[in-house]
Automatic annotation (TrEMBL), chain A:
<dbReference type="InterPro" id="IPR044760">
    <property type="entry name" value="TRAPPC2L"/>
</dbReference>
<keyword id="KW-0813">Transport</keyword>
<comment type="similarity">
    <text>Belongs to the TRAPP small subunits family. Sedlin subfamily.</text>
</comment>
<dbReference type="InterPro" id="IPR006722">
    <property type="entry name" value="Sedlin"/>
</dbReference>
<dbReference type="Pfam" id="PF04628">
    <property type="entry name" value="Sedlin_N"/>
</dbReference>
<keyword id="KW-0931">ER-Golgi transport</keyword>
<protein>
    <recommendedName>
        <fullName>Trafficking protein particle complex subunit 2-like protein</fullName>
    </recommendedName>
</protein>
<dbReference type="InterPro" id="IPR011012">
    <property type="entry name" value="Longin-like_dom_sf"/>
</dbReference>
From TrEMBL, chain B:
<dbReference type="Pfam" id="PF26283">
    <property type="entry name" value="Ig_TRAPPC9-Trs120_4th"/>
</dbReference>
<protein>
    <submittedName>
        <fullName>Protein brunelleschi</fullName>
    </submittedName>
</protein>
<dbReference type="Pfam" id="PF26254">
    <property type="entry name" value="Ig_TRAPPC9-Trs120_1st"/>
</dbReference>
<dbReference type="InterPro" id="IPR013935">
    <property type="entry name" value="Trs120_TRAPPC9"/>
</dbReference>
<feature type="domain" description="Trs120/TRAPPC9 first Ig-like">
    <location>
        <begin position="570"/>
        <end position="681"/>
    </location>
</feature>
<feature type="domain" description="Trs120/TRAPPC9 N-terminal">
    <location>
        <begin position="220"/>
        <end position="297"/>
    </location>
</feature>
<feature type="region of interest" description="Disordered">
    <location>
        <begin position="827"/>
        <end position="871"/>
    </location>
</feature>
<dbReference type="InterPro" id="IPR058568">
    <property type="entry name" value="Ig_TRAPPC9_Trs120_4th"/>
</dbReference>
<dbReference type="GO" id="GO:0005802">
    <property type="term" value="C:trans-Golgi network"/>
</dbReference>
Length: 138, 1188
């Protein structure tokens, strides 16, 4: 399962980040942070093509010996990043897409809260639960 | 990309170490001749070397040669400063790694030095002898040499020096470029010859070329097997391709590489296949992107290794990316083997995969990755570039820490080149940590720090707190905090505590909101520890590198909750001295607001009050200590701009996590003008901070401005009266005075003004402000302004005093009681006996039990006749009055403010003053009160008696002097009645106006009475004296007839002799007496319809007058005469006779009444007007009839 899930705002600042292993949080922060570069690049090239049919799923951004980092960007430039363990070979592309779809709907639910100010950190129990589920911690 | 094969194949420990990857290599370098450019000897100056080096590189990097067939070839050359001799070992694998030329630069002053230089040069030659084709030595000597290639005269080169040396005397060396070109040319020709030699070699005779680590792999293998032969041929073909590429024949090179690749693929010679692919790519790139060279001459002070894959390339890439297709078609026709641009990266990838199968080729793989990245950047394929770079990280090279650092910095540079700033800063941070890693034998914290600093922008971390967004949403706080903490550590370790303090302060300032309470506490404590070595100050720090670290300030510790400027104390506030307004035209007010929007904004922070130069002005703040330990904040001052402001330092201690604590910062403006308050400075946790409002959160204004006016004097006011226990703290009240006065009493007190300022007082104005009307105010408060003015100017430290005279103005007339008397009492006691005269209640009052009866009875005789019969009217009138009248209280408190306006010095010139007020409370105690009054005719016609019912309202015994000689003694709270003889109001007072209404008449008479009657009272036992006036006394129509002089003058004769007032007349019983009455009209108008009547009556002295005297006397002649008209100054005479039948005392009441009033007068007060006038002869004539 996922070891780290992050939501990044359109200004590339973190809106939400959660790791399964909080002691290694910094490492994940770095990983997620550096993968923004790739997302940005992917989004830029994507703009050249027809923006309306753009695929939200950005695919594998980066892989290390331990982790695979997948990205997903909504039409409002909110980015989701999921870090999976490289050893977990069973995860296929489709499953990763499913994860993102779940994450996206959880995010949509979270920001539907009328008390949520767009651009703020996400603090929502519902979203937490969804993320925990994705990470298989629940 | 990276397969697991690498791990398997590269398990063995490498015997060879080409341990220095050339990170700067580009694909173009495959085609370049490699030369070593090296300064030798100790004398050579770095500057000279750089300058010469630049010239050589500029001229020699790219040159053309006309070959034997007449074709122009473009040859590239690469100059390096260092070339590890081990790298030469790979020269068979890739020929561009071979060092072909050597150029040394040296300087000598003596023969010994020259010898040494020659020796060094030769040593270098020996070092690279395996590959070296040619060498040059550029030697700078003290004198010019005649022959360029020979040393100048006294010097000689050693015999073993067999190099072509260039001897120069100075750095201009005009023909340097030509000499280098000549050298490069020779290199080319040697290379060309080698190439030709190789190309002519028989295919079946070629030796096996080996990469350095392969040597032992092939020991014992059959070199003659078919596979082996193919391998040899393939490798040789590839080698030939290298040579062709270097010799400026890319087309040939492409051909060779292509065939080599085919051959090698067949025999599965992966390493060399990779090299062939790479060659293919390099040749293609050389053709497709000829300009992708590093721009060398731009580098200053840098070793040649440090090329720049920098920005200019990225900028130029728009031009070079994917060259136009017709171009590539044309090239393709010429060179069929060339790779199209999109193929290059693919082939490179393949090459890298092949390299990766050999652990020992790690360096080659790394270099290939970098080269591929650079090509991808050129092609603007960022993701591809990124993936090549990512691959670099996985290559497990056994290299030193230093090289690792170099690798990371290069990675970072390349990442930056295509805009991956986050990755770049990540790599820089890694590089920084390598500088101080445990494996590093000589940790360099300085370098570590510098790299860390460079990593900051990638994390969107600006070291200027101003640029950091307050909400912190821009970057990644966790990573930023980490980096700052690492910076702190690095700065500390490199021995720069100032920097450590700075960064720590910065951390607390900008990242405060992102830290947990524990982190905050730890950071604060850490800062305290760090700052002990070097105190933080808000000044920019300049690093050795020239970088400036902007100041950071602890704006959050302590947290400022509010910041407000305070006005001066009310009595110190400068007030504008109001002057007579100059005429500024007809418009007093304009609704037009010029530039409305901006003005409003600026006005907000502009204070609408003034501060005074030289006076202490204050700002109040509320501070919160968010930290869980006691915070000591010292040296708090205000930060100002504009005029000079002397701030008074303040030191406070905030308890742990204590709530808002009020702090007042004070200071003194030293000049006149606008003062801007920008914030305040603190010194806490060992750091001096300038906390500017502009940079603080939740501050309504970025700054405040206040106008400072010139210095004004200051006074201290004291009075001789006791202070009020409590007084309403109105504006600018400095002290108070209170006094109790009985109505009509006077008092005085002294006000002392002391100049406690430093400016002499030149102007003082005193005024009184109270709720009373000006007239009353003027009666109560009196002072001499002139007296005060004479004491000016009042120098600092001196005092002036003046006296205020107080007079307790009271209303002594009580309309309420009067009302009571005239209406209520009358109705309650209908005295039918007195039907004719209809006396008011006065007589009934007399009968009220009291021990003053005697005094009262004395008066009764004179009371009776004077009472009018129109009490109904008077009661009506007084009822009206009573409605208007305010009920009197037991005591009346009058509050007034004595305003002392003063100014002096510059403030006066600028038109400002200060106002100090004394709050004066006067308690008015009632003294005497006149509850009712009436008038009675006096014994003489020129006077009348004003009868007053006076009550002593005090609890003390009182002496009341009501005439010069008369006085009565009254107990406390005791009423008594006094007759006051008053001169009648002369007609001339009234005659000034011809026709006066009765209201005016009453007023004139009332004033006449008030001016004549003064009731002086004294409280026995005390010194208290006072004066009661009768101002405001009201008079009815009937009273008025008595008060003013009668318009009729009487001439009474009895038995033809004139009667004098108070004269005793006697006659005998039965005697006939003739009474002659002459009436003279003193008015200036005629009187009509007068009835002159003569009535006899007997006064029983008990309040009863007996008019029924039919049996006691008899009159002859009319006792009532009508006078239809009495002209002005006209006279009338009437005479009658009387005979008394019984003895006794008789009185004659002679009166003249007019039924009409003045008909011409407009009837304003109709009720009063209808009343007829009755004029009596006063006093009534008394006739005593003697019995026989």
């Amino acid at each position: 399962m996922a070891v780290c899930v992050a939501v990044i705002g359109k200004d590339n600042s973190p809106k939400y980040i959660r790791c399964s292993d909080e002691t290694a949080a910094l490492q994940f922060h770095y990983k997620v942070h550096t993968s923004i570069d790739i997302i940005e690049e992917k989004l830029n090239t994507g703009n050249k093509m027809a923006a309306d049919v753009r695929e939200l799923f950005l695919g594998l951004l980066f892989s290390t010996e331990e982790h695979k980092i997948f990205g997903y960007a909504t039409n409002t430039k909110i980015k989701f990043i999921v870090v999976l363990q490289s050893t977990n070979a069973s995860l296929r592309d489709n499953e990763v897409r499913m994860i993102f779809r779940k994450l996206h709907s959880a995010y949509a639910n979270a920001v539907c809260n009328p008390f949520y100010v767009p651009g703020d950190q996400i603090q929502s129990k519902g979203f937490d639960t969804a993320v925990m589920e994705i990470m298989g911690v629940s | 990309m990276r397969s697991a094969v690498s791990v398997i194949l590269s398990s063995s420990v490498p015997d060879n170490k080409m341990s220095q990857p050339d990170y700067e290599q580009t694909a173009h370098d495959h085609a370049a001749l490699l030369l070593l450019l090296k300064p030798i000897g100790t004398q050579t100056k770095q500057k000279t070397v750089t300058k010469i080096g630049e010239r050589i590189i500029k001229s020699g990097s790219r040159f053309t040669v006309l070959d034997s067939t007449g074709i122009t070839r473009e040859i590239l050359a690469r100059f390096v400063r260092e070339h590890p001799v081990e790298n030469n070992d790979w020269s068979e694998f890739q020929t561009h790694r071979r060092l072909l030329g050597l150029i040394t630069i040296g300087k000598y002053d003596s023969q010994t030095e020259l010898d040494e230089l020659c020796r060094l040069h030769e040593t270098l030659k020996v070092k690279y002898s395996a590959t070296l084709y040619d060498s040059r030595a550029i030697l700078f000597g003290p004198v010019e040499s005649e022959n360029l290639n020979e040393p100048p005269k006294p010097f000689t080169t050693p015999s073993n020096f067999k190099t072509r040396a260039l001897f120069y005397a100075d750095e201009t060396c005009p023909d340097l470029e030509a000499q280098i070109a000549e050298c490069l040319n020779s290199l080319f020709w040697i290379l060309e010859s080698k190439r030709l030699e190789r190309s002519r070699e028989k295919v079946d005779r070629v030796p096996l070329l080996l990469a350095p680590f392969e040597k032992k792999d092939f020991i014992g293998l059959d070199l003659d097997s078919g596979t082996m032969r193919k391998r040899c041929v393939g490798r040789m073909t590839k080698h030939l391709g290298d040579l062709c590429l270097q010799a400026g024949l890319p087309a040939d090179a492409l051909y060779h590489y292509n065939s080599a690749a085919n051959t090698l693929q067949a025999v599965k010679d992966w390493l060399w296949l990779g090299a062939a692919f790479e060659g293919l790519c390099a040749a293609s790139v050389l053709v497709l992107y000829p300009n992708m060279c590093r721009s060398l001459p731009l580098q200053r002070n840098s070793s040649l290794q440090e090329g720049s894959p920098g920005k200019q390339r990225r900028e130029s890439q728009a031009l070079n990316t994917l060259p136009p297709s017709p171009n590539i078609e044309a090239i393709k026709a010429e060179m069929p083997q060339i790779l199209p641009p999109e193929e290059i990266a693919k082939k490179y990838r393949e090459a890298i995969v092949h390299y990766s199968k050999h652990k020992n080729a790690g360096v080659i793989e790394t270099e290939a990755s970098f080269k591929a990245t650079r090509i991808s950047i050129e092609q603007n394929c960022t993701l591809q570039a990124a993936s090549f770079l990512n691959n670099v990280v996985f290559i497990n090279l056994n290299i030193s820490e230093h090289e690792k650092i170099e690798r990371f910095t290069t990675l970072s540079e390349l990442f930056t080149a295509f805009g991956f700033t986050r990755k770049a800063s990540f790599c820089l941070r890694l590089a920084a940590t390598r500088h101080v890693s445990q494996n590093n034998p000589n940790p360099d914290w300085q370098q570590c720090y510098n790299l860390m600093l460079q990593a900051a922008p990638g994390l969107k971390l600006s070291l200027d707190p101003v640029e950091m967004p307050s909400d912190g949403l821009r970057g990644w706080p966790t990573l930023q905090i980490q980096l700052i903490q690492e910076l702190v550590v690095a700065a500390k370790r490199m021995g720069n505590p100032a920097l450590a303090t700075r960064h720590m302060t910065f951390l607390l300032q900008t990242m405060y909101d992102h830290m947990s309470p524990t982190e905050r506490k730890e950071s604060a404590l850490q800062l305290q520890a760090v700052s002990q070595q070097c105190e933080g100050a808000p000044v920019p720090l300049v690093l050795d590198s020239g970088m400036v670290i902007p100041p950071a300030n602890l704006t959050n510790i302590p947290k400022t909750k509010s910041f407000t400027l305070k006005n001066l104390q009310p009595h110190l506030q400068p007030q504008k001295i109001e002057r007579i307004k100059e005429d500024h035209g007809p418009f007093l007010f304009t609704p037009i607001n010029f530039g409305s929007l901006e003005r409003k904004n600026t006005l907000k922070s502009k204070m609408d009050y003034l501060w005074v130069e030289g006076d202490i002005c204050e700002v109040s703040m509320q501070l919160i200590n968010p930290l869980p330990f006691e915070l000591h904040v010292s040296n708090m001052r205000l930060l100002t701009n504009g005029i000079v402001f002397e701030s008074i330092p303040e030191t406070i201690t905030l308890a742990a996590e204590s709530g808002p604590m009020a702090v007042t910062l004070a200071g003194t403006p030293k000049e006149v003008g606008d003062l801007e308050i920008l914030g305040f400075s603190t010194h806490t946790l060992g750091v001096k901070s300038n906390c500017r409002l502009r940079h603080m959160e939740r501050m309504p204004h970025p700054q405040y401005s206040v106008e400072v006016v010139p210095a004004l004097p200051k006074i201290d006011v004291s009075t001789s009266l006791p202070q009020t226990a409590s007084f309403s703290s109105g504006e600018n009240i400095v002290t108070s005075a209170s006094i109790s006065l009985y109505g009509g009493e006077s008092a005085e007190f002294t006000v002392t003004l002391t100049n406690v300022g430093v400016i002499p007082i030149e102007m003082i104005e005193v005024s009184v402000q109270s709720a009373l009307d000006t007239l009353t105010e003027g009666k109560i408060f009196k002072w001499s302004e002139e007296n005060l003015k004479t004491q000016l100017p009042l120098l600092p430290g001196t005092s002036a005093s003046f006296t205020i005279y107080l007079y307790a103005v009271a209303d002594f007339i009580s309309p309420v009681s009067r009302n009571d008397m005239s209406s209520g009492a009358y109705l309650s006691q209908p005295s039918s006996l007195m039907s004719q005269s209809g006396p008011s209640s006065l007589p009934s009052r007399l009968s009220s039990p009291s021990h003053h009866t005697k005094r009262q009875s004395e008066l009764t005789s004179s009371f009776r006749s004077g009472l009018s019969s129109h009490s109904g009217h008077s009661s009506l009138a007084s009822t009206r009055l009573s409605k208007l009248a305010v009920p009197l209280h037991a005591s009346n408190i009058i509050e007034g403010q004595l305003k002392i306006k003063y100014s002096g010095g510059g403030g006066l010139t600028a038109g400002y003053c200060r106002i100090s007020s004394v709050y004066v409370t006067i308690e008015m105690l009632p003294s005497v009160q006149i509850t009712s009054w009436d008038v009675l005719p006096a014994e003489t016609p020129t006077q009348f008696y004003l009868v007053l019912d006076v009550t002593n309202m005090t609890n003390h015994e009182m002496e009341l002097h009501y005439t010069q000689s008369k006085c009565i003694y009254m107990e406390g709270r005791e009423p008594c009645r006094i007759p006051v003889p008053v001169n009648r109001c002369p007609l001339n007072k009234l005659s000034s106006q011809k026709e006066i209404s009765d209201a005016e008449l009453e007023k004139v008479c009332s004033e006449h009475i008030a001016s004549l009657v003064d009731l002086k009272w004294q409280l026995l036992g005390t010194e208290t004296t006072g004066k009661a006036t009768l101002a405001g006394i009201t008079l009815t129509q009937d009273m008025l007839d008595l008060v003013r002089m009668s318009p009729l003058q009487w001439e009474i004769t009895i038995n033809d002799s004139a009667v004098k007032a108070q004269e005793e007349l006697t006659c005998g019983l039965g005697e006939c007496i003739s009474v002659g009455i002459g009436v003279c009209n003193a008015l200036e108008r005629p009187l009509r319809d007068l009835i002159l009547s003569i009535n006899f009556y007997q006064d029983h002295h008990n309040g009863v007058n007996n008019y029924r005297l039919d049996t006691r006397l008899s009159t002859a002649g009319a006792n009532k005469v009508m006078l239809p008209m009495l002209e002005e100054h006209g006279r009338a005479h009437h005479e009658c006779r009387v005979v008394f039948f019984t003895a006794g005392q008789y009185k004659v009441d002679i009166q003249c009444s007019s039924s009409e009033s003045t008909p011409s007068t407009p009837t304003l007060c109709s009720e009063l007007m209808h009343a007829g006038h009755t004029w009596r002869y006063i006093p009534p004539i008394e006739i005593t009839v003697d019995g026989c």
